[in-house]
Structures are given as C-alpha cells and as structure tokens.
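So, is this right?
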Amino acid sequence: MWPNLITRYVIWETSKVFLVSSAIFVVLMTIIGLADEAIGKGIGPDVILKLVPYVIPKALMFALPATCLFSVCVVYGRLASENEIVAVESMGVAKTVLIMPAIYMGFGLSLFGVWLNDISFAWSYWGIERVILESSDKIVYGVLKKEGSFSTAQFSIEVDGIDERRLIHPVITIKNASRGNARIVAQEGELIANPETFSLSLSITKGLIESPQAAMKFDDTITHEIPLRSSEDIAKATGNPNHLYLSQIKVAKAKQQRELEQLRKINAIGLASQWLAGDFAGLANQKWQAKLLAETEAKNRMVRMQMVPHRRWASGFSCLAFVLIGIPVAIRMRTANFATTFGVCFLPILIGYYPLLMLGLDLGKSGLAPALGAWLANIACGVLGTALIYREVNN
C-alpha cells in the first residue's frame, strides 16, 4: 500500500502549490492586462467585465509552464531538504515512486495546455475582437471625454465637447491612401457601433463634407459609415492560420493546397506563353509581379498552416519539459528555499529553451526546416531532464 499512499501524497502536495500559484499568476496577469487596456483605450467597467472570460485563458496559457516548474521546485525541494526522499528509500521504495506522479501530472497538464493554446488563439482572439467592436463607440466616447480627440489608421475625430452621447462640433477625417482623405465638419453628431460590418455609424447634423474630388454642404442629418478595419486587415485576420481551431486546420490546409496548385498552374501557363511569344519584358511588369506575389503569399500561408498544430502541441508540452528539468534539480539542491531552486531552473530555461523555441519556429516558417522544428526546444529539455532524472534515480 505504500506506493499508493506516497503517490497520493505527492500529487496532493504538488496540486496544492500548482493551483494556488496558478490562481495568483492568472489574477495578476488579468488585472494588469485589463488595467492597461482600460487606461490606454478608456474602456469602462462594463466592457472590462465582458473581456474577462476571454483574457483568462490567455493568461493561464502563459502561466501554465512556469507554475508547473514552480510546483515541482517547491515540493521536491522540500522533500529533499527534509530527508523525506531518504526515508522513503530506507523502506525499500524506489525514487521513481516519488518522481512518476509529477511526470504523469505534467503530461496531463500538457494536454490541458494544448487545449488552452487552441482556445486562446482562436476563441479568445475572436471573442476579444467581438467585444472591442461591439463596444467601439463606448471606447471612442471614453477617449474623447478624456482627451478630446481619437485617432486610428482608418479615421480621426476631434470634438469641442460631449453632452451624453452628443458630439459637439465634431471634425472627422476619413483616411484613404488611394483617393485622399475626406474631412467632415458638423454642428453635432453621434456614433453607433456596427460590429457586423466592422464600422461605426456616424450621424451628423448641419455641416460640410470635403474631399479631393468634391465638397458638399448639408443642413439636415445624414449618416456615414466609418470603417474600423480595412478590407485587407479583415481578410488577413479571417484567413490567418493562427486564429483557426486545430479542428479546422485539416480542411483549411486542403483548401489552401488546392488554391496553391491552381496559382502554380496559372503562373506556369502564363510563363510558358510569354517565353514562347518572346515577351520577356512582360515578365517584369506589375501584373506579372502581382501574380508571383500571390503565389508566394499562398505558399507562406501553407507553411504557417503546417506549423500551427506543431506549435500548439509543442507549447502545451512545455509543461512536461519543465517538470522533467525541475524535479532532478530540486532534489539535487536539497533546499526548501523554493525561490533559489526556481531561479536555478528557470534562468537556464529562459536562456536556452525560449531561444531554441524561436529558432525552431523561425526555421519552420521560412521553410528551412520541417514543421517539427517547433519541437526543438521541448526535445532538448526532455533529453536533458530525462538524463538528470536517470542519474538521480541511480545515484
């Protein structure tokens, strides 16, 4: 019965530290993140409350690996310093009975981490976007009350004051790089969010509209749609592989592969036709360059799609990699000072793990290495941690 009792004891002690440290870390990250948004964008408490469910998974995603490492450092450092490991060994029980429960927990938390990554990059991203778009008029009003002006890449607005929702003497500039900026000056106005069309509806009364093409005065109330996102930005966000669920990647990859093959065929036929016709100058014109750019972008998007599943699984299994490093180091240091143990473990991880992770991701995205490069840092930590555990068990 001793192994079962020891297993329950280790799992209970590790779980307590993990739950407490995770809760503290997530609360702090959530408060700091939301406070930054509230101060920077003038977001009110009602919008903050709507953002909380979407921010928590992102905070927990970042907290999970560090709190896994912290938990094993605390528990195994204390077990070693209080000679509990020696006591267990004196009863003829192997060290693996103490070590394996944390490894099993690390594996389970890694699977949970994969799910968290999937939720954070897809559900949380679109949830935050939806809340921000639905509350865009409140955000604009908040900034205008505070600063008297508001500006984005699509438009800017200045007012003399605000009476509830009524804008007093608004001056709006609609930015357009191709057709030139349009300027609207009105006696009063009001903004209403339209999240379905990624825009703000501006109702203005008695004013002047000026553009490079024409100018128009009006004495009644008219409505103008102000885009919050450009069509290019909307297309990029919608088609970005990073914001797809893992369950959607397979279908998206098949569709992208068909599009890429179609572009390659069209470009190959066009290239052959121009070579046969001797139109070498045509290969340098903007139309042909646009076709080559479209094929390159499709190829890059395909590579990113292949990287996404490996990146999310590798990010999730960083929990197990950190646990494999933390257990033997904590036992070897034999100190109850968890801050020292955590620092000794985390500093090399910070110096080694994350640069290797970024290297693997960059090589994979550039096509210089297969998508499995996302696992480079995990493999390095896993091999080192396994070697240290083997040495500790046989010491």
